[in-house]
Structures are given as structure tokens and as C-alpha cells.
Design goal:
This protein is 49% helix and 13% strand. The protein has 644 residues and is α+β, with helices and mostly antiparallel strands. Among the domains are: 164 residues, Glutaredoxin (3-Layer(aba) Sandwich); 65 residues, no CATH class; 59 residues.
Length: 644
């Protein structure tokens, strides 16, 4: 018989509706029951495409013994971290405090009946592995906790009170530091120290794309002409798209690679990664002219349009697992590919398989292979890719989480507007997607975080939604000059300042959980840094210094760490450089800006905005004055350069 999660909208919660665990969604009633019945609270946080979340469900939450202990002695609460990032951020802080290291998913939190946390873990197997508490299995751990709560163990309550006290104490920076251009040199030194010279990227394994680090390297190269920055950037972009973490068959990037070569991924595909990387690869093409980077950006956009959208709205993620195993949909056996190629009339199928890194022993598990090219992709792959897609079509497609999320959708829309300067097809896609997102998630001047398509959203927006949507709206304005987009961005930025800003400090949420917003770029770009970006843009376009003041105060608040550890704050570093050097604005007629969108997108200076003013020529302006003009778009680059 299904549990309470059957009535929830979240696809992740609904995945657990048939567990024998008597799950509660996050609600006041659950916490009231815990108090009334003097039961410990177990909070399990995850998301629909998380591989280890599936493992814990199979091994623990489908385990009858584990379920009986939870049902008898606990109030068990399931949380979708994508639906409620505020709750997730709070308990990730708890995990960090208790374990002195970053957490992950699934997140397993145990609390007193008053909802004060005292133990935090990630995946916990059903049976104990060793004698220490770190090695306790779920059965032994829950039995121990249930007994201590029933006995009202004083030490447990003391620990819980102490933890709550630490969590509620806000940390403030030690001191402010003057913002300096030279911060970029420290960033480069730190990037080089982390850099994998053989395979690209900034770690060994597991390997994440670090999109904002790549973006900052591009900004540094374009402003300071730093050869090392360009080498790290272009090498990493080329290595990442060889195949493996990048799906050469359907398109789009998987979340991360488990090896140092970007070969073997965790196969889930996340909208946020692909939105950011679509923009990075487009920018790299515009800066350096490598057509393969443009092809990657197109394939990302096409994948999300073809596989992961409905009514111009984008789904949030697809799973790693299908047919009960990880990667089943994505990998190939040597025999099936050889046979398919020969049936299609290819006489050199063996050689072609070898070039695709498909071999009898395989490069993945159980003799299977992930498609990859060590050298340039040959022309024949365009036709062979269709054959490989046909093989996949016979398989079960991974589960798709059909939630629409404002922040993540806006990331891809922002990338699509950049790509639209190269190909108008993506410009139209971006406009339709942005308009659909606003129609679905911005209702009666209230912005919402997430919903299912065709359902009314219930969860109001967090800082990241305001930040990334405002950024997408300002991109829309740049490439359309439609004032409605600028006006809407202005409203959202004002509302974000009202709700989340406090003298340089930003909160991620202001409701049930008032959680401080991250300033470092972790899973994706910090929403605080995106707010700095949008406020600087708004300040220039509206010629209103108060937004630049708020941006400066935010950077000043974080300047001590920014100056010493800029590698953790790459996007904020770009905005600090921008603040110091200042924007440039190209002013001209709407027709001129539209007809020359491609040339204007290729301008070297990364902090260039566009503004329609009826001028028949191209006027180059700063924040308070104009420098030069020309009727030749090809001279704009030189005029901007000469303005410094």
C-alpha cells in the first residue's frame, strides 16, 4: 500500500511512495507527531537522478527490518533537495559541522523529537561494517538511537543543543581587503597548482567540469592575454568532449567522471551543468573560432530540446540507472555495434569500432564500452551516430525528473541566447523558453522555485532563482533590446535586495529556514556572484549607481577570502575585475544591433553591453561618458580597446 508520498508532486518523493517505510513529506504535522509520541526524527535528503540514493532505497528503505525499526521508533521524513534547497543547505551545514568534511547525497540526518540534529551521515548500509560508530549499519544505528531517545539520554540532548547553537551563530569575515586586479594572478597560481596537465581539469578523480573556473580563465585570457590561462581552458574543453562524461551519441554532459580521463561518468545528466557548459563552449567558439566547441554547444542545446523539454520548458535531470543498473542505456558491446555497422554496409566495422574505443574487452564494466574518440571525430560518425541511437532506442530510457526549476532553466536560457548570436534557431528557442518560464513561474508578481509542467507552483523562489533568472532576462535584453525583459529583471533584482540582502551579506532563503547563501562556486556558480553580475549590469544600463554600490558592498564583505583564495570564488573574481575596469556599452539602433549580433558577440572585451538608442552609428561608451563612434562594426573592437 503506498505511503503518504503518493500525494506529492516531486518525482523523487514519488519514487519512494511504495517503500515499506511510513514516510512523511516535510510538514508541520510530522514534527508535531514526533513531539507527541517522543520519537526521534530521521530526515533523508536526496534527488531523483542520484545513483547512491537509489542504492540506499534498494538496500535500506526496501529492507523490511530497516522499515520496521523506522516505523516503530522514528518519524521518517523524505526531502527532495532540488525542490527544497533551503532545507538541504541547512542540513549540509549540519553534516559539515559534525563530520568536518563536505557531505553529499543521500544525506541521512537524525534529530531529537524537537528536531534538533545530533547525527549526520550519507549512504548508510543496512549492516554494520566495523566496530566504530562510523561503520555502524542502519539497523544497529537506528536501534541505538531509538533506545537513547526512549531513555531520554542527557548526553544526546546536550550534544543536540550544542550543535544547534553552533549552526545559529553566523560567521562574518575577519576584515575587508581592497579589491585589486592582481587577485587574478593568485587565481592563476592556484589554478595551475590544481591543474591536470595530461587530461585537463582541476582535480584527479572524481572529476567535475568546474564551469565557472573555465569561464574565469577565459575572462583573464581575453583581458590580460595570458597564455597559460588560454592553454588550461582550451585543453580542458577539448579533453572534456572526447566522449565519456560527454555523451557523443545523444549529446550533453553527464554530471562527473569517476576517472581522471573524463571517460567513465556517473551517467546522470543535470540541467545546471549543461546550461553553464552550453554558454562556456559558445563563448570559447566566439573567442577562438574552434568549430568543434560550437558543435558541442549545439548538441547540448539540441539534446535538452529533443529529450528533456515539453511546451518550451526544460526538465531538470535524467537518471544514471535504467533496467536496474547504472549506465545500461549508454554503453555498447563490441558485437552489437560491429553487427549493426556491417548490416548498414560498412566494410571496415572493426577499424571504426577501434576508433570509437569500442573493443571486445570494453572500457567500462562487464565488457561494455563508452563511445570515445582520442583524436578528432571523423566525418563518418555523423551517420554512425544515428545507428548508435537506433541501438539505444531498443532500451529502456533512464528515468527523467520532469520538474521545472527556475534557476536551472535560466542557466540554459542564458546559454541559448549566447548561442543564438551564432544561429538564430537558438535565439528563438531562448525567447520561447524564457517566456514560457515566466508564464509558469512568475505569477501575480510572485516568483516560484519549482513545479511540474501544467501544475501550479507552490514553493516560492530562493535567491538562486532571482539571480539566474535576472541574468537570463538581461541576456534576453542584450540580444533582443526588448525593454520588457529589462523591466522584469529590474523588478526581480529589487525584490531580491528586499528579501535577501543585509549589508553585504546575502541569505539564500528567508522563510522557514533562513540560510546564508554560499559565496563559493561549488556545484554551480554562487547565486551571490550572479547577483553581483546582474546588479553591475543594471547599474550600467540604468545609469543608477546604487546597484553598483550594493555589488561593491557584497564583494567588500567577501574580499578577505576573495583575495586569498580566489580559486574558490572564480565568478566573484570576474565581477571584481569588471568593477575595477568598468563596463563598455555599444550603443546603436535596434536594426544595427540585430544585424550585427554575431560580430558584436565576438568582441574581445568580456564586459561589453548593448543598448539601443536610435544612433545610426556604433557609439562606444563607459558608465558616465562616451569615447568614440564608427559606422563600421569591424572597428568596434579597436575602439573599445583604445578606450582604456
Amino acid at each position: 500500500m503506498p505511503n503518504r508520498l503518493e500525494k506529492e508532486d516531486s518525482p523523487y518523493l514519488r519514487q519512494h511512495k511504495d517503500n515499506p517505510v511510513d514516510w512523511w513529506p516535510w510538514c508541520d504535522e510530522a514534527f508535531q507527531k514526533a513531539k507527541e509520541q517522543n520519537k526521534a526524527i530521521f530526515i533523508s535528503i536526496g534527488y531523483s537522478s542520484c545513483h547512491w540514493c537509489h542504492v540506499m532505497e534498494e538496500k535500506v528503505f526496501e529492507n523490511q527490518t530497516c522499515a520496521e525499526i523506522l516505523n516503530e521508533s522514528f518519524i521518517a521524513i523524505k526531502v527532495d533537495r532540488e525542490e527544497r534547497p533551503d532545507i538541504d543547505k541547512y542540513y549540509q551545514e549540519v553534516y559539515m559541522l559534525l563530520n568536518r568534511r563536505a557531505g553529499g547525497w543521500p544525506t541521512s540526518i537524525f534529530c531529537t523529537p524537537e528536531n534538533k540534529p545530533f547525527f549526520a551521515g550519507t549512504y548508510i548500509p543496512p549492516e554494520s561494517q566495523q566496530g566504530s560508530i562510523e561503520g555502524m549499519g542502519f539497523v544497529e544505528l537506528t536501534q541505538l538511537i531509538a533506545r537513547k531517545v526512549k531513555e531520554k539520554d542527557e548526553k544526546l540532548w546536550e550534544n543536540a543543543d550544542e550543535i544547534e547553537g553552533f549552526i545559529k551563530q553566523p560567521e562574518h569575515p575577519k576584515e575587508a581587503t581592497v579589491l585589486k586586479e592582481e587577485f587574478y594572478k593568485t587565481f592563476l597560481t592556484q589554478a595551475k597548482n590544481n591543474y591536470d596537465t595530461r587530461n585537463g581539469g582541476f582535480s584527479q578523480k572524481p572529476k567535475f567540469p568546474h564551469a565557472t573556473t573555465l569561464n574565469t580563465l577565459m575572462v583573464i585570457e581575453r583581458i590580460y592575454k595570458d597564455k597559460a590561462a588560454k592553454a588550461m581552458l582550451t585543453h580542458t574543453l577539448s579533453e572534456m568532449k572526447k566522449g565519456g562524461m560527454y555523451d557523443l551519441v545523444d549529446g550533453a554532459f553527464c554530471r562527473y567522471s569517476v576517472d581522471e580521463r573524463w571517460l567513465i561518468p556517473h551517467f546522470e545528466k543535470m540541467l545546471y551543468d549543461n546550461g553553464l557548459l552550453c554558454g562556456i563552449y559558445t563563448d570559447a567558439y566566439l573567442a577562438y573560432g574552434d568549430a568543434s566547441h560550437l558543435q558541442t554547444a549545439r548538441e547540448i542545446a539540441d539534446f535538452w530540446q529533443n529529450y528533456m523539454s515539453e511546451d518550451n520548458l526544460f526538465y531538470s535531470a535524467s537518471d544514471a540507472d535504467s533496467e536496474g543498473e547504472e549506465g545500461t542505456y549508454f554503453v555498447y558491446s563490441y558485437d552489437e555495434v560491429c553487427e549493426a555497422l556491417k548490416s548498414a554496409g560498412y566494410n571496415d566495422a572493426d577499424r571504426m569500432c577501434q576508433e570509437m574505443d569500442i573493443s571486445p574487452h570494453g572500457n567500462f564494466e562487464h565488457g561494455k564500452s563508452v563511445v570515445r574518440f582520442e583524436k578528432e571525430i571523423p566525418e563518418w560518425f555523423a551517420d554512425v551516430k544515428i545507428i548508435l541511437q537506433d541501438i539505444r532506442a531498443q532500451r529502456e530510457y533512464p528515468f527523467i525528473d520532469k520538474k521545472v526549476q527556475t534557476s536551472w532553466s535560466a542557466m540554459l536560457i542564458n546559454g541559448l541566447f549566447k548561442l543564438g548570436a551564432v544561429d538564430n534557431k537558438y535565439h528563438e528557442m531562448a525567447k520561447k523558453s524564457l517566456d514560457a518560464l515566466l508564464e509558469s513561474m512568475y505569477l501575480d508578481n510572485v516568483l516560484y522555485h519549482t513545479t511540474l509542467i501544467h501544475k501550479v507552483p507552490k514553493i516560492e523562489a530562493f535567491l538562486e532563482d532571482y539571480a539566474f533568472l535576472s541574468q537570463a532576462l538581461l541576456s534576453a535584453y542584450k540580444y533582443t533590446q526588448d525593454e520588457i525583459y529589462l523591466i522584469t529583471a529590474h523588478k526581480l533584482i529589487n525584490r531580491a535586495l528586499e528579501r535577501f540582502y543585509d549589508q553585504g551579506l546575502w541569505n539564500f532563503s528567508d522563510g522557514e529556514f533562513s540560510v546564508k547563501a554560499e559565496t563559493t562556486d561549488n556545484t554551480y556558480t554562487s547565486s551571490v556572484s550572479i547577483m553581483i553580475d546582474t546588479m553591475l549590469t543594471l547599474s550600467t544600463l540604468l545609469e543608477d549607481e546604487k546597484y553598483a554600490h550594493f555589488a561593491f558592498k557584497t564583494m567588500e564583505y567577501n574580499s578577505y577570502d576573495l583575495g586569498r583564495r580566489p580559486i574558490y570564488y572564480p565568478y566573484m573574481l570576474t565581477q571584481a575585475i569588471r568593477y575595477i575596469k568598468e563596463d563598455r556599452v555599444v550603443k546603436s539602433s535596434v536594426a544595427n544591433l540585430e544585424q550585427n549580433a554575431y560580430e558584436l558577440a565576438k568582441l574581445d572585451y568580456p564586459f561589453t553591453l548593448l543598448r539601443a538608442d536610435g544612433n545610426k552609428e556604433f557609439m562606444i561608451c563607459g558608465k558616465t561618458s562616451c569615447f568614440a563612434n564608427s559606422n563600421d562594426v569591424k572597428k568596434v573592437n579597436e575602439l573599445i580597446s583604445n578606450s582604456f
